[in-house]
Structure formats: C-alpha cells, structure tokens
Amino acid sequence: MDDQTAGLKSIPFDVNDLIRGDDGEFYHLPTLRALNAAGRLSPDSIGYLLLLERSCERTRLIA
C-alpha cells in the first residue's frame, strides 16, 4: 500500500473520546487525530474544525 491508501492503526474506543459536531453526528477524537496526522483529513471538513476547536479549548496562554 502507498501512503494514500495505507490503513490506520487500530485505536481503542472510549466513549469519553466522542465529540458531537454541529451536524449532530458523533466524532471519535483519536480517529480524527490519526486521520489528520496521516494527511487524510481535509482542512474544510467538520472533523478538522472539531480538532481545531478542541485544541483551542485545551490550550492555555501564559502571560
């Protein structure tokens, strides 16, 4: 398999890793992170926007 069609590693499922998008669907954050790291998550997708939103929630600025 080449890089574009290579399979992702299995990721354990935990219900606490789910996030609901604006479309009402649930998304699994570890899967979204793996897709993004593999370059298979489009920047205009809901999943990508959820990752950005989630990372902003967890980031603290220190002055």
Any overview of this molecule?
This protein has two helices and two strands, in the order E-E-H-H. With 63 residues, it is an alpha+beta fold. The protein has a two-stranded antiparallel ribbon. The termini are far apart.
Strand order of the largest sheet: 1-2
* Portion in strands: 5-15%
Radius of gyration: 13 Å
Give the helix level as a range of percent: 25-40%
Number of strands: 2
Distance between the termini: 47 Å
What are the segments in which pLDDT stays under 50 over at least 5 consecutive residues? Answer: none
List keywords for this structure.
63 residues, alpha+beta, two-stranded antiparallel sheet, 2 helices, 2 strands, 35% helix
Task: Write a brief caption for the model.
The chain has 2 helices and 2 strands; from the N terminus they run ββαα. By secondary structure, the protein is α+β, with helices and mostly antiparallel strands.
Map the helices and strands.
Elements: E1 18-20, E2 26-28, H1 29-37, H2 46-58
Antiparallel strand pairs: 1-2
